Description:
The structure holds 2 protein chains of 2 kinds.
Chain A: E1 3-9, H1 11-25, E2 29-32, E3 45-48, H2 53-65, E4 70-75, H3 76-82, H4 84-92, E5 98-103, H5 121-126, E6 132-134, H6 139-151, E7 156-159, E8 165-169, E9 180-183, E10 188-193, H7 195-210, E11 215-219, H8 225-234, E12 241-249, H9 254-262, E13 269-274, H10 283-289, H11 294-306
Chain B: H1 2-16, H2 24-28, H3 31-41, E1 56-59, H4 65-74, H5 80-83, H6 114-127, E2 135-140, H7 147-158, E3 164-170, E4 173-174, E5 177-178, H8 179-182, H9 188-194, E6 198-203, H10 207-219, E7 224-229, H11 253-262
Helix pairs in contact in B: 1-4, 3-4, 3-10, 6-7
Amino acid sequence: MPEITPERVSTRAVFADALPELAVRHNVLVVDTDTGSIKPTPEMDYLNVGIAENAAIGLAAGAEHCGRRALVCTFAAFSVSRAFEFIKLDIAYPRRRVCIVGTHGGASGGWLGPTHHATEDLALMNALPHMRVVVPADARQAVALLEQCLEYDGPAYLRLGRKASPVFADLPAPELGIPQEVRPGSDIALVATGPEILATALEVAQGLAGAGYSAQVINVHTVDPESAGAAGRAVSEQCRWLVTLEEAWTSGGMGAQVAAAAGARGIPWLPVGVTGFLPPGSHTSLLEASGLTTESVLRQVLSFVTHPK
Amino acid sequence: MEVRARAVREHIVDMCTGPEGGHLGGSMSAVEILVALFFHTMNIDSDDPEWKQRDVFVLSKGHAAMALYATLAEREFITREEVSTFCRPGSRLATHGNVTVPGVEFATGSLGHGLALANGTSWAQRQAGPAPAHTFVLLGDGELQEGTVWEAAQVSRALDATNLVAVIDVNRFQQTGAVHEVSDGAPVADRWAGFGWHTVEVDGHDLAALCSVLDDAVRTQGPTAVVCRTVKARGVGALAGRASSHFVRLDTERKRARVRASMSPAAPAATATAKGEPGHA
């Protein structure tokens, strides 16, 4: 079972370190929107088009049309919403081999304020046919999944964080589209997406054990509808309750996909995610405001399982 | 090429006689531009539409798809017979450009996407070698109201897209009326020059002038804008220069006969300043 290590590493930072070599290896054009999250090397094909998300997506689509795989690096809050139609018509509809990277995902923008929070991104990207929607659980997963997105023969959205986030010892290597059971259990399934959230789920599982419940914990790093079936099947047949935890609005995100996939079982579902627009504040305080701390989730889950509706 | 232009116009009217109707005005205004590009300027192969070294054409004003289909038929990318299937069950010829048609590179029904896409194709072409193929993107003047056009234009200039030519079909009308009445802007050529593009203006229906200007554009360093003065529904005297030509359904024999009669070579084109009732797509 993976353990939360004292170490904290930014998924965005490891992306910046790993990308130059991966971009050259896979012959990927890197299109940046002046994010400051790229460390270009002379060997890379790198274009910083400036603060121009629609132009960046369109350019990547045009280059891919002429045979060049591309990666577009953006702030998640600005690419997914502002450039949504370009992503829909120029990337997803033609099934282009373009990886859209969104940094500052979820509430990780913190004090940058609600203009920089991306809590709608999972739902919007999940809505698009053909789009893989990927949220690594930690820095090691971020590098592995980045490479898998660059190799994937179609469109992908890779959500990254901003500052240092949890790292897990013994977390298995990820495979695109395949959820990971990280803790076996037989009463309550805790399905989690993202570094902070997986850490919380593991702590909640320990709290539930103290209350007499056996909690299964599943890390879902690929949250799109195509992966939802596998995630739904990963929920133990013995579990009588489903709890989904994500740093996103719950409409259309990971939880909505997993619940839809597991719906035929009639399993009661508690979605836990970001509630409404978040104020400025530290990442930690924003998770608190959304009830995504260990104490709050534990309380919500115990209430859920002990007060059937 | 004049004969080709006339044939393209015949095809366009043929498509408008179908049950769906079509964007007649903006297709007719683009005819000479397309004929010049596809029969004179562009390096393309109808037997190999995806030939790697081809020049790329991006129809950013996607509603002129009828004109593109008609030109592709004359250029033998598709058969002339296929033109008659436009918007009929089973056809791949949709009202806006459909990418399953050879020669149609992108689905550009939503305005404002083409120039950003062209930045990508032209960049990729420049990576292929020191004498790159070219990308030509056709925009409408109403389309310039989309902010994404200018976001992309700035990038073209920043990248010094030397093999990129934007051709603007300035037919002066859009869905509900004159462009300057809907959303007046600075003169089109001034805007492109202001964004740092090499900018030239030309009569968009003068084939010889178009070919000459396009030859120069291909040789020019840096992105080039060719601003074409055109007449909406050019060649159809009854509808020329009127907003009502934006979307037309020739669903009665009387309408078809009237349009065909006004297409005779001797019929004078109506003045471009005429105003008409709004058309409805």
